[in-house]
């Protein structure tokens, strides 16, 4: 089996992953902080990075905080909050130019890791708690992010389909939390949650650039005060789940175009041997412009403005999204179910097979051109315990047969049909 090119180590509670390379003119740094998705903590966890980005103990004012990034030759700094399986992940990212290309007084990798270590472990506080003005301002930022999902009906329908499908699983929760929980958060409660997160979370620090594991380890020892202990690990949820009955959920809002979404249990996860066949299944079904959903639902039948599918290999779920005329619900549902049935026959054209393999291979090759994409791909191994390189996955995909795709299709079950339509009663 081809192993990743990342070198591994650990320092107290932080796992270290370093890819020494001179391919890039920058250092790319990613810090992942993961914890279980729970209703009690999801909203506060999501708010924490918004508050941390406002300032540190040494630069508590946001303007001065941002000036430090300018002093690092305009280093990029940002974060994401998302979910993988039943875990909520906060990812901090930094990109800073390699010292070889500028005349910096301070080593820029060291300065960047010091900055990131401060952001995480030495935030701006007053009276021992997060600054009230930052907490209140970022509560509004978070509220607007959640409102934006409601206002974007394509995103809203996709989230609601998952919420209904996984109604008794942690995965139903949005990684940015719940609007109803925002008001009750105080600087005191948020600080307590932050301290708990620091002591409980799984930490993975990635560095890609012209450095070594030994150098990164010594710099992290100086920059991060996460306390002693051993790293926490991820527990991926079992994906095998039988569907007793297909649920149909119809929601009414002020919309002019219907949003028809379907949730499928594919009963295969990223770590499984048949994951490459699941990638092919999704690609032929609705992953690309040559797929069955696009050609048959959108092009031939003219029933949808868009029709596509998306695979979540960490949860073993495939979702179908389509935008349709509200009166076409029955027709569109029937023709989508026909495509699911045709996937089970194992009859795929050479064009479908070859184009899908080519599209997946192109995507995997493109990963190698981006340090951040390489980091994201490698993190899959940490989450799932299944280490495979992009080249290895590419070879596995190329070897997938029609029979293997049909085997995925035959164990895939339609779980939930979600339809967002107008408020008019029939």
Would you give an account of this structure?
The protein is an alpha+beta fold and 426 residues long. The chain folds into 2 domains: 7-223, Metalloenzyme, LuxS/M16 peptidase-like (Cytochrome Bc1 Complex, Chain A, domain 1); 247-421, Cytochrome Bc1 Complex, Chain A, domain 1, CATH 3.30.830.10. 43% of the residues lie in helices and 22% in strands. It is built from 14 helices and 13 strands. It has helices spanning 42-52, 62-71, 108-121, 132-151, 153-165, 187-200, 213-223, 275-287, 292-300, 329-344, 350-367, 371-384, 390-398, 402-411, and strands spanning 7-11, 14-20, 26-36, 76-84, 87-97, 125-126, 129-130, 202-209, 247-252, 258-265, 304-312, 317-324, 413-421. The chain has a 6-stranded mixed β-sheet, sandwiched between helices. The chain has a 5-stranded mixed β-sheet with strand order 9-13-10-12-11, sandwiched between helices. Strand 11 (304-312) and strand 12 form a beta hairpin. It starts with 6 loop residues before the first strand and ends in a 5-residue tail after the last strand. The mean pLDDT is 94.
List keywords for this structure.
single chain, 426 residues, alpha+beta, Cytochrome Bc1 Complex, Chain A, domain 1, 2 domains, 6-stranded mixed β-sheet, 13 strands, 22% strand, globular, MPP/UQCRC_Complex
Task: Give a nutshell description of this structure.
Pfam families: Peptidase_M16_C (PF05193). The protein has 426 residues and is an alpha+beta fold.
């Amino acid at each position: 089996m081809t192993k990743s090119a990342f070198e591994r180590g650990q320092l107290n509670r932080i796992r270290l992953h370093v890819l020494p390379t001179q391919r890039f003119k920058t250092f790319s740094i990613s810090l992942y902080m993961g914890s279980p998705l729970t209703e009690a903590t999801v909203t506060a966890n999501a708010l924490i990075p918004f508050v941390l980005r406002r300032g540190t103990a040494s630069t508590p004012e946001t303007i001065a905080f941002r000036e430090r990034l300018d002093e690092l030759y305009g280093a990029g700094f940002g974060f994401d909050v998302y979910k993988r399986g039943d875990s909520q992940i906060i990812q901090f990212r930094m990109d800073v130019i390699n010292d070889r290309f500028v005349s910096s007084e301070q080593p820029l990798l060291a300065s960047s890791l010091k900055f990131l270590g401060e952001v995480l472990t030495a935030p701006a506080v007053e009276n021992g708690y997060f600054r009230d003005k930052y907490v209140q301002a970022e509560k509004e930022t978070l509220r607007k992010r959640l409102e934006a999902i409601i206002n974007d009906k394509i995103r809203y329908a996709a989230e609601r389909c998952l919420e209904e499908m996984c109604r008794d699983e942690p995965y139903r929760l949005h990684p940015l939390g719940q609007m109803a929980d925002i008001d009750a958060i105080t600087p005191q409660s948020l600080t307590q949650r932050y301290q708990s997160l620091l002591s409980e979370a799984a930490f993975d620090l990635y560095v890609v650039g012209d450095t070594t594991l030994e150098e990164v380890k010594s710099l992290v020892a100086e920059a991060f005060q996460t306390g002693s202990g051993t790293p926490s690990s991820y527990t991926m949820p079992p994906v095998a789940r039988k569907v007793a009955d297909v649920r149909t959920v119809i929601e009414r809002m002020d919309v002019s175009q219907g949003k028809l979404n379907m949730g499928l249990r594919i009963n295969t996860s990223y770590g499984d041997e048949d994951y490459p066949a699941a990638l092919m299944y999704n690609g032929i079904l609705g992953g690309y412009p040559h797929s069955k959903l696009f050609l048959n639902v959108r092009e031939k039948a003219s029933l949808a403005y868009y029709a596509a599918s998306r695979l979540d290999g960490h949860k073993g779920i495939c979702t179908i999204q389509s935008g349709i005329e509200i009166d076409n619900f029955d027709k569109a549902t029937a023709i989508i179910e026909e495509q699911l049935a045709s996937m089970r026959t194992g009859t795929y054209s050479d064009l479908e097979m070859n184009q899908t393999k080519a599209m997946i291979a192109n995507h995997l090759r493109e990963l190698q051109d981006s340090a951040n994409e390489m980091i994201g791909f490698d993190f899959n191994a940490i989450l799932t315990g299944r280490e495979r390189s992009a080249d290895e996955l590419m070879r596995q995909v190329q070897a997938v047969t029609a029979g293997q795709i049909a085997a995925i299709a035959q164990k895939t079950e339609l779980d939930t049909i979600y339809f967002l339509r107008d408020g008019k009663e029939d």
